[in-house]
């Protein structure tokens, strides 16, 4: 049995461990590039590794620690004090056990972790994070003591467990020459692994040996490269907000909509490939029309979400077709069932939500949503918060120009899904921009 050195006492977080300084020194001396990359500081403690990545131009840095107090009392203040005011748009913070984080984290170019392999009982959780969160050509750096006396963890056993999976190539890129023996383990995906992936990603009907369908994962990646879309459900309706990226000044304002009417009482917001999204929109409209012709009434949004989910899932089963590269959110309102919101992803999975996000900044958007008491909010309040979220998560470095697209359905619209009126749109946009400026001013005050 393995245990902490002092039973029941949390020893990490507020202490700067030697291996963290080793890794910082290595990253600096070797001029490891972070510019434009997504980085995870795993088991971050004071957050020095992630702060180094931010200062070197990382596109985004996520900080994770087991202990919430460490993040709130140490990591977050450190990050704010040592970076520019816009750091909030580039960072996210997560607390909890590694086993509970898979649905919160995204994919990363670089994962940095220090003093996290002291307990062998946690090795498999850590390796699972690596398997699910590192990008195809990503790099992982693990700084650790050669052996942890009293606990049993050591670099050799961890590396041995990693090598049981042919996916990984490992190498020791640093070894201390004084004091307690310390090492830095560099982990990359093997060329053989990429070759193996190529054998199993030619058809949506084929599983890889570890149970993955790569064509579906590629479709999900198409969604992640899209502008952010959010949908919120309150006490009297559902609202949609989409960050519609403008890649050319020649585009006509309002073109290429990403919020659609499906039926009089149902709206849909989409993220991902627009052409694929339009096919899903037409399919959903046909389903609604057929239901009305057959039963003489409005199609329930849950039934429609299930039909769309089955349609999308069918395109993951056959080699002659490919999955749809889009996710969609469906919202409706009526006097009987009240507001309802569903999201369908590229694999054909459908769930009901109080709030959902799609696109490149979905994780940051979800973090903002979790701060809201959605069940108690009116449609107007939801609109303001949805617009605010879009402005907060927008990446001004990579995506300078965007249009905010808004739609709503609820008691205020008599149950009809509509584009938000211009006067309301202007008020909501002013609120969002003002809130963003207030956040920036707050960041300056903190510094």
From TrEMBL:
Major location (coarse): cytoplasm
SMART domains: Proteasome_A_N
Record keyword Cytoplasm present: yes
Annotated localization: Cytoplasm; Nucleus
Record bears the keyword Nucleus: yes
Entry-linked Gene3D superfamilies: Glutamine Phosphoribosylpyrophosphate, subunit 1, domain 1, Vaccinia Virus protein VP39
Entry's Gene Ontology cellular component terms: cytoplasm; nucleus; proteasome core complex, alpha-subunit complex
All residue ranges annotated as the Proteasome alpha-type subunits domain in the record: 200-222
GO biological process: ubiquitin-dependent protein catabolic process
Annotated InterPro entries: Methyltransf_16, Ntn_hydrolases_N, Proteasome_alpha, Proteasome_alpha-type, Proteasome_asu_N, Proteasome_sua/b, SAM-dependent_MTases_sf
UniProt KW keywords: Cytoplasm, Nucleus, Proteasome
Record-stated family: Belongs to the peptidase T1A family.
Function: The proteasome is a multicatalytic proteinase complex which is characterized by its ability to cleave peptides with Arg, Phe, Tyr, Leu, and Glu adjacent to the leaving group at neutral or slightly basic pH. The proteasome has an ATP-dependent proteolytic activity.
Name recorded for this polypeptide: EOG090X0C09
Organism of derivation: Daphnia magna
């Amino acid at each position: 049995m393995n245990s902490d050195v002092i039973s029941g006492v949390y020893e990490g977080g507020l202490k700067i461990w030697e291996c963290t300084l080793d890794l910082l020194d290595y990253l600096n001396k070797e001029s490891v590039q972070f510019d434009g990359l997504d980085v995870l500081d795993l088991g971050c403690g004071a957050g020095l590794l992630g702060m180094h990545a931010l200062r070197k131009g990382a596109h985004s840095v996520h900080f994770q620690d087991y202990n919430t107090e460490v993040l709130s009392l140490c990591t977050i203040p450190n990050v704010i004090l040592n970076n520019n005011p816009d750091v909030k748009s580039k960072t996210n913070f997560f607390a909890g056990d590694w086993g509970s984080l898979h649905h919160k984290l995204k994919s990363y170019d670089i994962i940095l972790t220090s003093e996290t392999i002291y307990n062998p009982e946690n090795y498999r959780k850590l390796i699972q994070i690596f398997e699910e969160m590192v990008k195809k050509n990503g790099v992982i750096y693990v700084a650790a003591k050669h052996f942890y006396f009293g606990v049993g963890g050591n670099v050799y056993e961890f590396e041995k467990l990693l090598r049981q999976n042919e996916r990984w190539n490992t190498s020791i890129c640093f070894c201390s020459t004084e004091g307690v023996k310390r090492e830095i383990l560099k982990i990359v995906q093997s060329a053989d692994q990429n070759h193996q992936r190529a054998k199993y990603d030619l058809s949506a009907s084929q599983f890889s040996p570890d149970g993955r369908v790569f064509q579906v994962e590629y479709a999900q990646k198409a969604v992640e490269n899209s502008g952010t879309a959010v949908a919120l459900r309150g006490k009297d309706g559902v609202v949609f907000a989409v960050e519609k990226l403008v890649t050319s000044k020649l585009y006509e304002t309002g073109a290429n909509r990403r919020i659609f009417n499906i039926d009089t009482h149902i709206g849909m917001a989409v993220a991902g490939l627009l052409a694929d999204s339009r096919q899903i929109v037409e399919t959903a409209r046909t389903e609604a029309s057929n239901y009305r012709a057959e039963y003489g009434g409005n199609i329930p949004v849950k039934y429609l979400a299930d039909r769309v989910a089955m349609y999308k899932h069918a395109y993951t089963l056959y080699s002659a077709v490919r999955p749809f590269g889009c996710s969609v959110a469906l919202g409706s309102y009526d006097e009987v069932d009240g507001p309802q919101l569903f999201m369908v992803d590229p694999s054909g999975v459908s769930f009901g939500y109080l709030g959902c996000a799609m696109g490149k900044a979905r994780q940051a958007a979800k973090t903002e949503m979790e701060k809201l008491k959605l069940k108690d909010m009116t449609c107007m309040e939801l609109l303001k918060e949805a617009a605010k979220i879009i402005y907060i998560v927008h990446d001004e470095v990579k995506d300078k120009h965007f249009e905010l697209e808004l739609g709503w359905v609820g008691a205020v619209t008599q149950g009809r899904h509509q584009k938000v009126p211009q006067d309301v749109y202007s008020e909501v946009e002013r609120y969002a921009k003002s809130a963003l400026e207030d956040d920036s001013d707050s960041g300056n005050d903190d510094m």
